[in-house]
Amino acid sequence: MRQNGRRTGRHGGASRARGVEGAPSGAVWLHGLHAVAAALRNPRRRLRRLLATPEGEAAVARAVGGPLPLQPERADPAAIAALLPPGAIHQGLALAADPLEPPSLEEALAASDGPVLVLDQVTDPRNVGAILRSAAAFGASAVVVQDRHAPGETGAMARAAAGALERVPLIRVVNIARAIGTLKQAGLWVVGLDRDAPTTLAGAKLGDRRLALVLGAEDEGMRRLTREACDELVRLPQTDAVESLNVSVAAAVALYALMAERLERGEPER
């Protein structure tokens, strides 16, 4: 029996995998222990098919901490690898699942009072996944991307996010400048990270404002219209030993700095 796209009840051991055909229509393959376990625990996921080695099944059952929501199919590591991009580290697990349906930006803002990250044409799925992981670690409400210039949900993104794809809304918008306008109307102060800005993030004295942090692509930074839509531009202090930080590293450093400021003001960790 299925409920909300899942087969209910305890699994009675793995069945034999049905070969190495692709994911069901509309689904993507998630792989790796953390990504698969987080998706299995997420009631908003429509789960389609779980392939597992004996070791992978045992590991994910421990991580989920209860009955698996669908019966795994036994597959050897080579059969799982054949479904995934070359070099994907799957740890004996591959889960076919439908992409998540994100909330609206307004819904995400109402659900949490953390900062929001806006990514202006960040296209590497691993960078987006790593940013989602930092967003979860430091209490961000959502990550906003432009639909036309951002990667779709992939196994590489989910693995880099280490489960955070299931916890932090990844919201796709048609127009970044318009989304920034929505954030401003909701009372957020929009701060763009720009390596040429005269003021550092700490020096901007942002106080207890709720912020939206805007980050551009690693090579080109924010586009002109995005930069002009920000309320303020700041930079992260760094030596001249490197020209710039990877965008996911910059996001993590900025989010940590904001959390440290909150803790100094006596606010609880979110």
Q: Secondary-structure element sequence?
A: EEEEHEHEHEHEHEHEHEEHEH
Low-confidence region ranges: 1-13, 15-20
**Computed CA radius of gyration, to the nearest angstrom:** 20 Å
Named at the architecture level, the CATH assignment of the largest domain is 3-Layer(aba) Sandwich
The helix tally amounts to: 9
> In order across it, which strands form the biggest sheet?
10-9-8-12-11-13
What is the CATH level 1 assignment of the largest domain?
Alpha Beta
Between the first and last Cα atoms, what is the distance in angstroms? 38 Å
CATH superfamily of the largest domain: SPOUT methyltransferase, trefoil knot domain
Look at the helices and sheets and give the structural class: alpha/beta
Number of strands: 13
Largest sheet: 6 strands, parallel
* Beta-strand residue percentage: 15-25%
Output the CATH topology of the largest domain.
Alpha/beta knot
Q: Could you tell me the mean pLDDT?
A: 89
Shape: elongated
Helix content class: 25-40%
Number of domains: 2
Biased composition (Basic residues): 1-10
Domain RNA 2-O ribose methyltransferase substrate binding: 29-103
Keywords: Methyltransferase, Transferase
Protein name: 23S rRNA (Guanosine(2251)-2'-O)-methyltransferase RlmB
Describe the structure.
By secondary structure, the protein is of the alpha/beta class. Helices cover 32% and strands 19% of the residues. The chain is built from nine helices and 13 strands. The strands form three sheets. The chain has a six-stranded parallel β-sheet with strand order 10-9-8-12-11-13, sandwiched between helices. A five-stranded mixed β-sheet has the order 3-6-5-7-4. Helix 5 (125-137) packs parallel to helix 9. 43% of the residues are buried.
